[in-house]
Specification:
This protein has about 100 residues and is an alpha+beta fold. The protein has three helices and five strands; from the N terminus they run αβααββββ. A five-stranded mixed sheet has the order 1-5-4-3-2. β3 and β4 form a beta hairpin.
């Protein structure tokens, strides 16, 4: 398991995570809960892929986004995309930009 995934899982376990409005809308449409998303991240054996955001609207240029696809404890496969927010050299929280059922 990668160090980044361990850091993300520790943030989730500590309750240090937040959802964007887009992620909340996707969750509502797909009828999944925060717990479904958290369980799927905690069950993930690996990060599915890492992206670099190129959006000029981003706070930092080229920030890293992590895609995790894994099943929750009921077998529902959830797709989530987020960023690990680090402030003053410490991981602060995991911000979920997208959370929905995997296709």
């Amino acid at each position: 398991m990668s160090d980044v995934l361990k850091r993300i899982k520790r943030a989730i376990l500590a309750g240090n995570y937040a959802f964007s409005e887009k992620a909340r809308i996707e969750m509502e449409v797909d009828q999944i809960t925060e717990l479904d998303v958290a369980e799927s991240i905690l069950n993930a054996p690996a990060i599915y892929k890492m992206l670099r955001s190129k959006s000029p609207l981003r706070h930092r240029s080229r920030e890293r986004l992590y895609v995790i696809q894994s099943a929750n404890l009921n077998g529902l496969v959830v797709y989530s995309k987020g960023k690990l927010v680090t402030e003053a050299g410490h991981d602060t929280y995991y911000f979920l930009i997208s959370s929905k059922r995997a296709l």
